């Protein structure tokens, strides 16, 4: 009996070993790609979808935006100016009307020509439809309805319901798709006009793109690009060092060296959002005390490895509305303690437990940062308990409707304004009814509404004043730091990251170190 | 034997049912995934519509009843994240985990038998002490730490192996298998050694020797056969652990298996995929338990006789 069992086991073992000697189940094409002709990118996670109207999600946008599909125009991350893409020119012809001249001779990956009808369809699909696109929620107002008027194959006029001086900037988030695309369901693998088209998506393993040989613009250097994903930052860094990947997103400071990475400002700002509806955080003295109790220099220098700048507002330099006059509150624990004592003397329950909610992996050493904040706030006389959460649990606290019966909450947030205009920040984080704001004031709301309708220097000044007012009269946020990202980059390629790189990694901008086109 | 099998099936199926029901209820206690799937500015009406569309607005018992009704029809739902059928995603990922677990256990068993026998043949010798020390160390090493060190040492410093991934030749298997292997291997060496020490000093071994049997025959023909039963039991439990716990290996090395799929499903509150993955894993563990019990009963008549009719 035993010998019979043993022989069967051995037979099964032989089959398994022979069958598995080379090929891993469900990985028919492998995942690394050949160095040289393939640009190899390692991401932190697999995109859930490549649907263009979800491109404001980092994991989707980093693959899709301006690689597979393209918008009419795009914002230059360095200058902040809009530059032509599928539109060659645009102008405001009336307070609620913008006209766009579209590029001729552009075709989609499926061979269908790109026309104004496709542009109108794409905007309508992303903004006006019931698809519930993230780009709609992030970029356009809830009740915004756009009316499109096609004026020829290359002429498009867009009508807004109210004056919108930054409509072209908003439209830079809307990726163009052919008018044969579904309007009732999101697509997983889209057709676009970009320099690369989807060749294959091996779920769980890799996404491969091939160069669009009919691309209207400059020919990308690499015939193929392949994305893989590794959740562990140490492995992403090791892949760069080892030469298994050319680019790797979001490395940790401890894994980064001058040889395998480059730091860049990524437009992200970290802050504590204080729930002003709950005692003791409903007292502005307590909120101001928290601002003074935080040692930003210490956190930036020690925990963030110097890859950040102490912050005094929710947007970094380069975003319209950034206020250069605002300075981060100095670390002054004694003054913080005095304010807390003053509030306590007036009956504010300063010993009530405050829950500091932070998101795992939101940025490197986020847990240690939360611990430092807890210690510093305790030194000021507050009772703080840390609650680490995953993304879904953190979103429960981040977005309206907020959870009830959870007491006072200080939420550690990281806000990235990739659109480059303070309107996208204030509407979400500062308005009293903003989806990510716990409270505000009617005065601040009115100032935000007025600023939204301004253009040019007046717009800049109005939003700069709003950020100053937040700090002075609302103090919902204790700003921590303007962050910097770390991009892993091998010596075999040349690429200069900019503040948009974390959200849209343009493959066509990557060149081989030796030689040019492949 | 059939009675034994029937009893084992019933006793193993009960935990399976509890696991599936437990995961269903616990997943829903983590909250409605609406925030992950709708835009930031989604209205209350849109949120309500999303909840209604996926049944999240129903009482949990109603949701459970609906789910069980679908499962009976082999409908495991659709992924919220990818819009693909959950069953398809799970069945695609599962073979990669099974491959990994099977190869790992074959190597672990073969190596443990060899080293365990050698160590037990001369107890307290230098070879025995070294193998005991190393196997205890192996059984104690955290797999996450071992995986990262493996990547840094063998991938980056020595450049002998790829850091991760599934393409290429047999070398892609080395680090994932070594990481999965280290703990079961350490445990099995200890078990085989202990069982062999007892077997080699048992009366029947002395009888065999007195009858002139060769040492090879004594060790592998008599002692090992009797030492197999405890080793098989432990190996079965360890195999179940591998199928269930390949999460670290799959996450670190980018292995497209069910462990990684489960973690992603939990983080994304992708309930249909999570439930399908847990169900398939539970069924696999259920079947593995039956197979292990059958092997155990085949090897040891006392086990069969211990089960009342």
From TrEMBL, chain A:
Signal keyword on record: yes
First and last residue of the signal peptide: 1-25
UniProt GO molecular function: peptide transmembrane transporter activity
Listed InterPro entries: Peptide/Ni-bd (IPR030678), SBP_5 (IPR039424), SBP_5_dom (IPR000914)
SUPFAM superfamilies: Periplasmic binding protein-like II
GO CC field: ATP-binding cassette (ABC) transporter complex; periplasmic space
Alphabetized Pfam families for the sequence: SBP_bac_5
Any GO BP: peptide transport
UniProt keyword annotations, A-Z: Signal, Transport
Span of domain Solute-binding protein family: 81-394
Gene3D superfamilies cross-referenced by the UniProt entry: Dipeptide-binding Protein, Domain 3, Periplasmic binding protein-like II
Similarity section: Belongs to the bacterial solute-binding protein 5 family.
Descriptive protein name: Peptide ABC transporter substrate-binding protein
Organism expressing this protein natively: Amycolatopsis albispora
From TrEMBL, chain B:
Topology versus the membrane: Multi-pass membrane protein
Localization terms from the record: Cell membrane
One annotated Gene Ontology cellular component of this protein: plasma membrane
TM annotation in the entry: 12-31, 98-121, 133-153, 173-192, 271-299
Domain ABC transmembrane type-1: 94-292
UniProt keyword list: Cell membrane, Membrane, Transmembrane, Transmembrane helix, Transport
Main localization (coarse): membrane
Family annotation (Pfam families): BPD_transp_1 (PF00528)
One MF annotation (Gene Ontology) recorded for this entry: dipeptide transmembrane transporter activity
Family, similarity comment: Belongs to the binding-protein-dependent transport system permease family.
UniProt xrefs under PANTHER family: DIPEPTIDE TRANSPORT SYSTEM PERMEASE PROTEIN DPPB-RELATED
The name this protein goes by in its record: ABC transporter permease
Lineage of origin: Bacteria, Bacillati, Actinomycetota, Actinomycetes, Pseudonocardiales
């Amino acid at each position: 009996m035993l010998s019979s069992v043993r022989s069967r086991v051995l037979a099964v073992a032989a089959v398994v070993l022979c069958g598995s000697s080379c090929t891993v189940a469900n990985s028919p094409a492998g995942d690394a790609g050949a160095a040289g002709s393939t640009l190899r990118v390692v991401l932190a996670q697999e995109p859930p979808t490549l649907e263009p109207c979800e491109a404001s999600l980092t994991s989707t946008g980093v693959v899709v935006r301006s690689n597979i599909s393209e918008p009419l125009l795009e914002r230059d991350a360095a200058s902040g100016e809009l530059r032509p893409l599928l539109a060659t020119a645009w102008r405001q012809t009336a307070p609620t009307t913008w006209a766009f001249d579209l590029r001729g001779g552009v075709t989609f990956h499926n061979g269908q020509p790109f026309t104004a009808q496709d542009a109108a369809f794409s905007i309508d699909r992303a903004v006006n439809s019931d698809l519930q696109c993230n780009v709609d929620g992030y970029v356009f107002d809830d009740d915004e309805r756009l009316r499109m008027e096609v004026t020829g194959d290359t002429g498009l006029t867009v009508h807004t319901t109210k004056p919108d001086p930054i409509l072209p900037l908003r439209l830079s988030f809307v990726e163009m798709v052919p008018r044969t695309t579904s309007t009732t369901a999101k697509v997983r693998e889209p057709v676009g006009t970009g320099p690369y088209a989807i060749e294959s998506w091996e779920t769980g393993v890799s996404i491969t793109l091939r160069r669009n040989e009919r691309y209207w613009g400059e020919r990308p250097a690499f015939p193929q690009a392949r994305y893989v994903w590794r959740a562990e930052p140490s492995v992403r860094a090791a892949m760069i060092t080892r030469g298994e990947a050319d680019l790797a997103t979001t490395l940790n400071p401890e894994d980064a060296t001058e040889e395998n990475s480059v730091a860049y400002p990524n437009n992200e700002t970290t802050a504590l959002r204080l729930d002003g509806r709950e005692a003791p955080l409903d007292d502005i003295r307590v909120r101001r005390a928290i601002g003074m109790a935080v040692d930003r220099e210490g956190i930036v220098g020690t925990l963030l490895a110097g890859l950040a700048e102490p912050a005094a507002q929710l947007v970094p330099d380069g975003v319209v509305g950034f206020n250069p006059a605002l300075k981060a509150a100095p670390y002054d624990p004694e003054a913080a303690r005095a304010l807390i004592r003053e509030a306590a003397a007036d009956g504010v329950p300063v010993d009530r437990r405050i829950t500091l909610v932070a998101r795992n992996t939101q940025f490197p050493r986020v847990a240690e940062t939360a611990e430092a904040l807890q210690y510093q706030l305790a030194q000021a006389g507050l009772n703080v308990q840390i609650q680490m959460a995953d993304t879904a649990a953190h979103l429960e606290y981040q977005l309206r409707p907020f959870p009830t019966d959870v007491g006072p909450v200080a939420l550690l947030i990281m806000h990235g304004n990739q659109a480059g205009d303070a309107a996208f920040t204030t509407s979400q984080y500062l308005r009293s009814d903003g989806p990510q704001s716990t409270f505000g004031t009617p005065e601040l709301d009115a100032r935000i509404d007025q600023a939204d309708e301004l253009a040019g220097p007046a717009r800049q000044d109005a939003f700069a004043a709003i950020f100053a007012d937040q700090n002075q009269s609302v103090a919902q946020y204790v700003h921590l730091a303007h962050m910097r990202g770390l991009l892993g980059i091998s010596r075999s390629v040349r690429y200069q990251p900019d503040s948009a790189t974390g959200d849209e990694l343009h493959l066509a901008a990557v060149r081989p170190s030796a030689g040019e086109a492949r | 034997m059939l009675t034994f099998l029937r009893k084992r099936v019933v006793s193993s199926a009960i935990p399976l049912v509890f696991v599936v029901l437990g995961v269903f209820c616990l997943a829903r206690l983590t909250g409605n995934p609406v925030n992950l799937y709708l835009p930031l500015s989604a209205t209350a009406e849109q949120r309500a519509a999303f909840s209604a569309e996926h049944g999240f607005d129903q009482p949990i018992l109603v949701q459970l009843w609906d789910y069980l009704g679908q499962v009976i029809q082999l409908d495991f739902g659709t992924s919220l994240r990818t819009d693909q059928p959950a069953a398809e995603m799970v069945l695609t990922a599962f073979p990669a985990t099974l491959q990994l677990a099977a190869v790992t256990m074959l190597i672990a068993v073969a190596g443990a038998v060899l080293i365990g026998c050698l160590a037990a043949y001369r107890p307290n010798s230098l070879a025995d002490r070294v193998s005991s020390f190393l196997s205890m160390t192996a059984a104690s090493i955290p797999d996450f730490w071992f995986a990262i060190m493996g990547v840094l040492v063998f991938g980056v410093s020595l450049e002998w192996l790829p850091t991760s991934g599934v393409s290429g030749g047999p070398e892609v298997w080395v680090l994932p298998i070594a990481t999965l292997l280290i703990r079961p291997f350490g445990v099995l060496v200890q078990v085989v050694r202990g069982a062999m020490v007892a077997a080699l000093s048992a009366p029947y071994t002395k009888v065999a020797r007195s009858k002139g049997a060769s040492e090879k025959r004594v060790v592998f023909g008599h002692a090992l056969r009797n030492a197999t039963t405890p080793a098989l039991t432990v190996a079965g439990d360890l195999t179940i652990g591998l199928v269930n716990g390949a999460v670290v290996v799959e996450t670190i090395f980018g292995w497209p298996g069910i462990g990684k799929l489960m973690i992603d499903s939990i983080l994304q509150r992708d309930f249909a995929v999570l439930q399908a993955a847990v169900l398939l894993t539970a069924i696999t563990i259920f079947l593995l338990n039956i197979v292990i019990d059958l092997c155990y009963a085949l090897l040891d008549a006392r086990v069969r006789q211990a089960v009342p009719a």
